[in-house]
Design goal:
six-stranded mixed β-sheet; globular; alpha+beta
């Protein structure tokens, strides 16, 4: 398992244009939360929270040097195992509308678009990007 600081560094490498990054302290709180979990693979992680039979992917990320090599699918399968063990029947997530590789990945995994938050993400250059809300029934 990666330390909280290593996870924070990896997150920052995966989303270099974002203003807000997960910090080690916030990751520690997530790991220790009653209804949250950090699921890891060698080169990535997913931050996850749950309520009743629903789960929300707060963030899922793979080291850029290892993207496109099946690590995302492996990580998602780990998440599915965790979700099944905890009675999760539906997953939700939000993704930046300009993140085309993530949108293709989620679409392949049977997520469907259910909503949009206008100007939700703030980039370092000041640009605001919509967040797309997606859902997948397990």
């Amino acid at each position: 398992m990666m330390s909280n600081e290593k996870l924070a560094e990896l997150y920052a490498r995966c989303f270099p244009d974002d203003v807000h990054h997960w910090k080690g302290e916030a990751i520690a709180q997530l790991k220790n939360g009653k209804n949250s979990e950090v699921v890891e693979v060698e080169h990535g992680a997913v931050f996850f929270q749950m309520a009743a039979d629903e789960g929300e992917i707060l963030s899922i990320f793979i080291d850029p040097a290892h993207q496109g090599k099946g690590e995302g699918s492996r990580l998602f399968n780990e998440l599915l195992s965790f979700a099944a063990a905890h009675g999760i029947r539906t997953l939700f997530l939000e993704v930046a509308a300009d993140n085309q590789s993530a949108l293709k990945f989620y679409t392949r995994l049977n997520f469907e678009l259910i909503g949009k938050r206008k100007a939700y993400y703030l980039r370092k250059n000041g640009v605001k990007v919509d967040a797309l809300t997606m859902r997948c029934d397990l």
